Each structure stands twice: as C-alpha cells, then as structure tokens.
Amino acid sequence: MAIELVPEWMANLEDEDVVFIKRFLLASGSLKEIARQYDVTYPTVRLRLDRLIQKIQLSENVESDPYIALIKRLAVNEKLDFDTAKILITEYKKRKEHDI
pTM of the entire structure? Predict the structure, then answer.
C-alpha cells in the first residue's frame, strides 16, 4: 500500500500500536496467542486491545471544533483518559447548545 493511501486513523497510531495490530492479525485474532507472545495475561491484552479500539474510534470522528479536536488528540495521545474526554466533550456540547 502506498503511503498516501494509509488511512488517517492508522497514520495517527504509534509504532507499537501498529506492531500490535500486525501480531494480532498474524495470530488470527487470538488474544490468547497474543498474551503468550507478549508474556502477559489475557486481561492485559484485552485491555490493550480495548484502548486501541478507543484510539481508532476517536481518530475516526474528525471534528471541526478546535476544542473538541484538542480533547480528542489529548485522549488519543494518552494525556487524558477516554472517560474524562467523553465527559468534557459532552458537557461542552451541552453548553454550546444552550448558548445558541
């Protein structure tokens, strides 16, 4: 795949996330196999996969509002946890709707 065809959600991932995805695919999606490869427990791998899914979901929802885009970037870069990011965005949208 040419570099210009790499989806933005993938381009925004860290190298270790891309390696994890590659290993996951090569293991046919077996979390047990990934846990064995990384020498960690199944719940640890499940948590990592869940966080990766959240990163991808947040980066997929491109936002034109600069404040919301900032909150999403902070969450994707793990400077802010996803639950807090969701709360901040929800409250911001409520206030913004109220001001209209």
Answer: 0.62
